[in-house]
Amino acid sequence: ELYFKNLLKREKQVMEKNGKNRKLRVCVATCNRADYSKLAPIMFGIKTEPEFFELDVVVLGSHLIDDYGNTYRMIEQDDFDINTRLHTIVRGEDEAAMVESVGLALVKLPDVLNRLKPDIMIVHGDRFDALALATSAALMNIRILHIEGGEVSGTIDDSIRHAITKLAHYHVCCTRSAEQHLISMCEDHDRILLAGCPSYDKLLSAKNKDYMSIIRMWLGDDVKCKDYIVALQHPVTTDIKHSIKMFELTLDALISFNKRTLVLFPNIDAGSKEMVRVMRKKGIEHHPNFRAVKHVPFDQFIQLVAHAGCMIGNSSCGVREVGAFGTPVINLGTRQIGRETGENVLHVRDADTQDKILQALHLQFGKQYPCSKIYGDGNAVPRILKFLKSIDLQEPLQKKFCFPPVKENISQDIDHILETLSALAVDLGGTNLRVAIVSMKGEIVKKYTQFNPKTYEERINLILQMCVEAASEAVKLNCRILGVGISTGGRVNPREGIVLHSTKLIQEWNSVDLRTPLSDTLHLPVWVDNDGNCAALAERKFGQGKGLENFVTLITGTGIGGGIIHQHELIHGSSFCAAELGHLVVSLDGPDCSCGSHGCIEAYASGMALQREAKKLHDEDLLLVEGMSVPKDEAVGALHLIQAAKLGNVKAQSILRTAGTALGLGVVNILHTMNPSLVILSGVLASHYIHIVKDVIRQQALSSVQDVDVVVSDLVDPALLGAASMVLDYTTRRIY
């Protein structure tokens, strides 16, 4: 009440300032049948007060197209003089045609606006034509009044609606939520009018008219009140293919439901041509239960939906206007998903089967709900006319935005500006536990190493202790830690951050939740993955796999692991067991493997396998050659076998050749299965195997894959770098 008293006071002041004989020249631009239903009540109101207003009507868009009913005629039937007709639609009904239509409107509108010279232009809603109108008016310094700003639906219309809001100088909204949205968008509260929807002025006085003659005219003489359906469905421009499929399912459900149905043709958005094809393919225009029409005059359409048994589709009319009558509505898909609705609306958001839609029809058809007045009380037009009269044309044209107060940034010191974005990387190996601070460029700023404890309790406590220490040190090193990445042996569920099954090298490490304790302690996001996968991620971000779509990484260390990158993404497999490349079988009667099988690559080429063979030779006094010794307190290992081979030990050379051949056969299998563009050998043994592997490929692989390059990784710490990359990829918005 106080608001409207102030509005009346301002109206009188404006009239005195603008001059009592000065009329406000209002241009109303209408693009289609839907926006005219909202603009017509305002136009009638303006027309009834010729002493205050001068009305110019501009018609464009689908109003002027025969396929969409030549709906400009209803404007003429309402006795409005159309000042200008603009043919702005580029046919094609696809995304490009919509863009071209906006461009064509922008080319034609300046001449019209220069000729009419309106004081204010009234623009409705969220159509692409309306965006062209608002853009033209804003650039030509014409004040804009936007109707129905601040609402939320769920498609590209939201973006267009909000873009028009930012161009508009004045706003008429329909609901309290829309008003709050406009205020949140920094619009001036004094220039926002909560009036309700103008179409409700007509809706709420329409239901008592003679409606049976209208129903019979459109649906046939044998149709009864509340025993028919009105269907109105439009394409969703952000997902055209799905919306066409949904329309097809809707028609199938309506055919099965077997009730008389009035189907209105879709609007002119991208995808409408395909929807019309679906109608014709199913014979809707000739089906005895269907009446397919391009346009129904709004007065008659009101009566049809008011007395229907149900309305179905994705039109805003279903969730807005139809609520005034309590008619049941089935809202399909996401086109109106953000709208405020009454209890008469049943949402079928995933309308992906005929059965879902059919079930919704059975639930809704024939019900009667309480009438809803969410969008208006029938008095919008008088409020809008008062608002128009209060506009002061002497005020500066440049609109102001009401930004909320922003706290001062207290971190504008040079140290904050120069902070290095970093990740905490953890590598759980069979022997050592390592934690490192890794920068965005892949530089290891600082590394901590401890022996990996044998029990779960000791191990998890040590991880937490080392991470807390590293995070504290990161502050001194001016590194900002973005998260924690963990590389560990065994099978890992990266979605939950759980180690499902570990290798025999790490004891008490099955069904271990690593994410929760670290996240709770450090208050940082945590990622966990298998060490082979981490090596592949390291190559993708920092190594020789950078920019490649498909490659495979093989780790040759204590065990044999690997990772597969396919179409730029890491492959985990259905049970997180992908890329267990060490357990590819290359011999049916080979040595036993730690996995319980035999003949695996790991049984031949891993550090453990080489250590086993080195011990055998040493026990038989066949390992050591001239210039070589093993201290008594030192265990014989793979490196002693490699040293012996380099010094000419024939048996050691034979063992290494066999191991390299087994690895080479595994690579051949990978080439034949995955056909990657690159294979990267990583780990301490890679350089000793590379030449043997290439020889095996030349001898055993199909000619079509022999050109695939096999290289040795040049990364020093692939497990740590891969763990860090999980964090760093997230911070650069890469999907992992």
UniProtKB/TrEMBL annotation:
One of its GO terms (biological process) is UDP-N-acetylglucosamine metabolic process. The keyword Glycosyltransferase does not apply. Residues 51-389 form the UDP-N-acetylglucosamine 2-epimerase domain. Zn(2+) binds at residues 583, 593, 595, 600. Pathway: Amino-sugar metabolism; N-acetylneuraminate biosynthesis. An N-acyl-D-mannosamine binds at residues 491, 503, 531, 580, 583, 602. One of its GO terms (cellular component) is cytosol. Transmembrane segments: none annotated. It catalyses: UDP-N-acetyl-alpha-D-glucosamine + H2O = aldehydo-N-acetyl-D-mannosamine + UDP + H(+); an N-acyl-D-mannosamine + ATP = an N-acyl-D-mannosamine 6-phosphate + ADP + H(+). Its main location: cytoplasm. In the N-terminal section; belongs to the UDP-N-acetylglucosamine 2-epimerase family. In the C-terminal section; belongs to the ROK (NagC/XylR) family. Homodimer. Homotetramer. Homohexamer. The hexameric form exhibits both enzyme activities, whereas the dimeric form only catalyzes the phosphorylation of N-acyl-D-mannosamine. This is Bifunctional UDP-N-acetylglucosamine 2-epimerase/N-acetylmannosamine kinase. It comes from Diceros bicornis minor (South-central black rhinoceros). The lineage of its organism: Eukaryota, Metazoa, Chordata, Craniata, Vertebrata.
